[in-house]
Design brief:
This protein has 2 helices and 27 strands. The longest helix has 6 residues. It has 334 residues and is mostly beta strands. It has a single domain, classed as Beta-galactosidase, Chain A, domain 5 (Distorted Sandwich), CATH 2.70.98.
Length: 334
Amino acid sequence: MTKIHTLRSTNGLEVDFIGYGGRITSIRVPDRDGAVADVTPGYASLDDYRRDPLYLGAIVGRFANRIGGSRFVLDGHEYLLTPNEGANQLHGGPGGFHQAMWRVDASAEQSAVLSLSSPRGDQGFPGKLDVTVTYSATAANELVVDYEAATTEPTPVNLTQHMFFNLAGHSAGDILGHELTLAASHYTPVDRSLIPTGEIASVRGTPFDFRAPRTIGDRVSDTDEQMLIGGGYDHNFVLDADGTGEPTFAATVLDPKSGRSLEVFTTEPGIQFYGGGGFARIPLGKDGFRYSANAGLALETQHFPDSPNRPQFPSTIVRPGEIYRSRSVYRFGT
């Protein structure tokens, strides 16, 4: 493994990360009885992170999620991107930020700054993009992720952190018994290539209604068409944000067995809930553990997928002279 950096809060939270992909490799938090466990799935070796198909713990960009047809038109010019999921581009392409070696300034115990310069034409995107991501561990047992980016040409920017969580412990089995709440009255349905149809649909009466706490396994085998397309939960939820520009409540996850909880707050308009159906196909995990399907869940704070091709969605375009800023907060408790 490459060099591991550790952040420590003053109240028991410990976060390990590496420069490769800016990947968070371990999150250790206490349960209701004070017992500490690592609650994020991961790998033991750098080679496994290089082969990883699920973006475990990675900073994702330039554009998180999918861009349909690996193309978009901006200011009258068509840009062709590098595809890596059939005809589409997923999470910034095959050489996206998850594969980059980030520069790390970890001189403080509670925070670290990661930086990266993405050259003009990287994976097909216009402009040179300079990015900084700051990880902070607070006394409230929060992991705070701050993103900033500046560009030399107009370009889409949509950054996220692709952590997975199993609040019972990374090797405790599946997360189907976890209770999830999402502050989302709507979601964006997808076609069979997982590209949004453009509709913003109500969650009412569907398996996507998590406005009140509900176990993830409650309707994971539902025959709803969207569930069949996604192989379970792999959808963008439209958050009921207050529009203040400050991080607002997005989600809560509770593991009834350990009592551990996670609250997510974000400045982003959306959150991708992925139930981890793909875990059965990843390499051997850390501690020699073989993960099974649904071994962890991801809550990817983001702008909506395919936004450069969907003018009805919130814009992701950043122009020279503007600063892209985003903040997401992951608060652990019991």
